[in-house]
Design brief:
The complex is a heterodimer of chains A (about 325) and B (about 280).
Chain A (H helix, E strand, L loop, with lengths): L3 E10 L2 E11 L4 E5 L6 H9 L6 E6 L2 E2 L10 E4 L11 H11 L4 H14 L15 H13 L5 E5 L7 H18 L2 E6 L2 H7 L2 E6 L2 E6 L1 H6 L4 H7 L3 E4 L13 E4 L5 E3 L7 E11 L3 E8 L2 E8 L10 E5 L5 E4 L2
Parallel strand pairs in A: 3-8, 3-9, 6-7, 7-8
Antiparallel strand pairs in A: 1-2, 1-4, 4-5, 9-10, 11-12, 12-18, 13-17, 14-15, 14-17, 15-16
Helix pairs in contact in A: 2-3, 2-4, 3-4
Chain B lengths: L1 H23 L3 E2 L6 E2 L2 E2 L2 E2 L4 H8 L1 H33 L3 H16 L2 H12 L4 H8 L13 H25 L3 H9 L4 H12 L1 H16 L3 H6 L7 H11 L3 H28 L1
Classes of the chains: A alpha+beta (about 325), B mainly alpha (about 280).
Chain lengths: ~325, ~280
């Protein structure tokens, strides 16, 4: 049975549809990412699960019981805000203890739980500090500790890495992933960053205009995007329209996604699944090289292994790919 | 240039009058025009400390001062309590509505204070509207003695000074981070608990500022107690007025004014510190 089920959730702001009959199930112990651009409805969905917004129609079911009309304090859900929303007038320890105090936990039980979380998140020595005396990374961990204090079965994370320096982001993301595995709780993360979603989540839902365009594992999403817009959003894939370049795929479709690393340089132009092209730009990226090539009215992105001999800009090259490299796009 | 002009204005309009008032406290009252001998004459020092010693010796002045501070405290506390509710209401209104609501708070403030207090006389006096309505309804047979009482004075004070409390509180509450309150609710706090543990403590500096902004001018208020208050309840503002214009004892009036100012320096300094911290 799923931990959280959303059933036909619809929400409008004024005349604008934020969520359009959205349904989704999230399992226990799952790290789930809601991926979408601004206005896709991902944040609204998170706020509906937390109880800050009420849907016009549809149900939110947590652990088998309907919580659609429950106010936020009555929900077994905790949220980590993008801005962290730490209480500026309380110390780190008091921030972490806030939820436990509201639950009427005994004093010594609060103290031991706070100590446990301080140790878990590496906040030792900072207990007496105020939030403004902490670095961004430390604030993020306090926010995480505060949200986890009551051992919620479901943790909601609103852009958990967005406020961090880029250097810290990858490391913190991996820590988040390890923490979720260790706790066995379900994490639902909202993000606009596809690489973050693909790197951390067990499953990713791509949201577009209040609907789910695709739900899949990161691997499947990357290899087989369902639609043009998903392929475009995940970035970097070439989108080939049927009827353009001569194509032969395993499945008939109106268009195909072609990953840049699945394209190779060939000596002879094949009858299908190939193109003659002129190199526009070459960018060496350390582990590999990105080549932009103009092929009959379309610019193709090609990623070549670092060891390959790289063509010069302006050179004529021949590109080729296997039928299995063409991922069919349905819309 | 601007610096020099600022200093000149400060010296002429602020420092000089203060020094004159302070010095006059050491003068000697006489029957004449002006009714005072200054503390320094052609022969040098000719002043007296009588006004100052009387300030400490006569319980009348001390009682008056304490009564004024008590009135200012009660007025400021009531304005703070009422103002907090109003500010919270304004801050949670739609942005367009906020401007209108703030204007409604300020509008009466822009009509003269005396005019508004006169309006209260019309409402509260024996033949006034409130008594007339109560008598018409048959609830009372004799008019209630509403006017010229502690209650009437307090109503007038709160009415007059409420905007001083509403404005700083509205400013603080409008720009507060609503995410903090959501976070508290998410962590299990009900509405009352969110207010007591998050909204109120974070608004504390603004609340203190609101209290002091009412307290400081209310301590020396003359007009409202004069128009609405009981004739026998003597306040410091009235006492200064009386010494100056009725008994024409300028040194006593000056000593009283200086004492009041010295006392009010404490809340003023507190307010300064609050504004710096924020």
């Amino acid at each position: 049975m799923s931990l959280l089920a959303l059933e036909g959730v619809t929400k409008r702001f004024g005349g604008v549809v934020a969520l359009d009959g959205l349904s989704l199930e999230i399992g226990a112990g799952e790290f789930f990412a809601l991926l979408g651009g601004s206005g896709s409805g991902k944040s609204t969905l998170l706020r509906i699960i937390a109880g800050f917004e009420a849907p016009e129609s549809g149900r939110v079911v947590l652990q088998g019981s309907d919580i659609t009309r429950l106010p936020p304090p009555a929900r077994a859900v905790a949220m980590m805000f993008q801005s962290y929303a730490l209480f500026p007038h309380l110390s780190v320890a008091d921030n972490i203890a806030y939820g436990l105090r509201r639950a009427g936990t005994a004093k010594d039980a609060i103290a031991s739980r706070v100590a446990e979380l301080v140790a878990l998140l590496g906040l030792a020595g900072l207990e007496a500090r105020r939030p403004h005396q902490l670095s961004g990374g430390q604030q993020q961990r306090v926010a995480l500790a505060r949200a986890l204090a009551r051992r919620p079965p479901l943790l909601l994370l609103d852009e958990p890495l967005a406020a961090l320096d880029s250097g810290l982001r990858e490391h913190t993301g991996l820590e988040l992933r390890a923490l979720q595995r260790r706790l066995g709780a379900s994490f639902v993360m909202v993000t606009h960053d596809q690489s973050e979603a693909l790197a951390l989540a067990d499953r990713v839902a791509v949201l577009e205009q209040g609907r789910i365009a695709q739900v899949a594992s990161p691997r499947e999403l990357y290899d087989k995007p369902a639609t043009r817009s998903v392929a475009r959003f995940l970035g970097a894939a070439n989108i080939l329209e049927a009827g353009g370049l001569p194509l032969r795929a395993e499945v008939e479709a109106p268009a195909y996604a072609l990953r840049p690393e699945r394209i190779r340089l060939a000596d002879v132009l094949p009858a299908v699944n190939g193109a003659a092209a002129i190199v526009l730009e070459v960018a060496f990226r350390g582990g590999d090289a990105l080549v932009l090539a103009q092929a009959s009215g379309q610019v193709l992105r090609v990623v070549l292994p670092a060891g390959a001999t790289l063509p010069e800009p302006g050179a004529a090259i021949i590109l080729a790919w296997e039928p299995s490299a063409l991922a069919p796009l349905l819309a | 240039m601007i610096r020099a002009a600022t200093w000149a204005a400060l010296v002429l309009l602020v420092a000089a009058p203060l020094v004159i008032v302070f010095g006059m406290g050491f003068g000697t009252p006489i029957a004449g025009v002006p009714p005072v001998i200054p503390p320094f004459g052609a022969a040098g020092w000719q002043g007296s400390f009588e006004a100052w010693s009387l300030l400490l010796a006569d319980n009348f002045y001390l009682d008056t001062l304490l009564r004024s501070l008590r009135l200012a405290t009660v007025t400021a506390a009531l304005c703070l309590a009422l103002g907090f509710g109003m500010a919270l209401g304004i801050a949670s209104a739609a942005p367009r509505r906020q401007a209108l609501l703030l204007a409604l708070v300020l509008l009466p403030f822009w009509t003269g204070s005396v005019l508004r207090m006169a309006a209260w006389v019309g409402l509260l006096r024996d033949g006034g509207w409130i008594n007339a309505v109560l008598m018409q309804a048959g609830l009372i047979t004799e008019p209630l003695p509403l006017l010229y009482s502690e209650g009437a004075m307090l109503v007038g004070m709160v009415h007059g000074y409420l905007p001083f409390a509403v404005l700083p509180l509205t400013a603080a509450l409008t720009k507060r981070d609503l995410r903090l309150e959501e976070a508290a609710a998410d962590l299990g706090a009900g509405r009352a608990t969110v207010f007591l543990t998050v909204t109120l403590p974070l608004a504390a500096p603004a609340a203190a500022a609101a209290f002091l902004l009412v307290f400081i001018p209310a301590a020396g208020e003359v007009v409202i107690p004069e128009v609405l208050g009981a004739p026998d309840s003597m306040l410091i503002g009235r006492a200064i007025w009386g010494e100056f214009f009725q008994t024409r004892d300028w040194p006593q009036a000056a000593a009283l004014s200086t004492a009041l100012l010295a006392l009010l320096l404490i809340p003023m300094a507190l307010y300064q510190r609050l504004s710096v911290v924020r």
